[in-house]
Amino acid sequence: MVSRWLERFGREGAEQLLRRNNQPPVYTVRVNTLRPGASAAGLLEQLAAAGIQAELSPLLPEEFIRIRSGLQKLLAEGFVSNGSLVVQDESAGLVVSLLDPQPGEKLLDCCAAPGGKTLFAAARMQGKGSITALDISAPRLGALRRAAELAGVSDMVSTHACDLRDWTRKAAERAVWLAEMRPAAPPAAAVGGGGGGAVEVPGSRDTGFGQPITTLWYDKVLLDAPCTGE
């Protein structure tokens, strides 16, 4: 590995990578801002009162907290189990920040489980809108659903155990079916201002994934594979 780095980045670049990899990792948690009155500053005070050394993230100070010491105590005190905090890496949070989800939008998360970025997006959307979460692992999607319930956004997150390629094929088949079965249906309603955004298709049909597809277009699509932060 070092030989490859020397060849690719030169001596100085390789040494910087080696020094960085030898540093202890920084653990971060995300504040569940969907809770009334929840804030990073407020949770930071609670952590300090519990004897946990922490600081606001310099990258995402409104939502993320860096834990300097006391991560196990944080878990034991119930900050995570009660839904106040979520253990999540800042790098995963930055991906969602770049996506910039807004309230009322329709999102497609193509590699969603176990759901960290999905739920952060839901928080950025203030619980308003919808997120379709796809993943090939049904058990990992189960963890996502449980986390969504704990965060209070289970009504806006739908999960589907499937490959993205199968999902798009099913969506295309359903679009053809709707065109054949509903020739007199009113025009699809555009969601969002200025005539852009997602297109809501009337009607529903079993997709073979346990839930009907009701959206063929999305405001934003997240495909982070392999997952940042894992």
From TrEMBL:
S-adenosyl-L-methionine binds at C111, A112, A113, P114, G115, G116, K117, D135, D163, D224. One of its GO terms (biological process) is RNA methylation. GO terms for molecular function: RNA binding; RNA methyltransferase activity. The keyword Oxidoreductase does not apply. Residues 17-230 form the SAM-dependent MTase RsmB/NOP-type domain. Keywords: Methyltransferase, RNA-binding, S-adenosyl-L-methionine, Transferase. SUPFAM superfamilies: S-adenosyl-L-methionine-dependent methyltransferases. Belongs to the class I-like SAM-binding methyltransferase superfamily. RsmB/NOP family. This is SAM-dependent MTase RsmB/NOP-type domain-containing protein. It comes from Volvox reticuliferus.
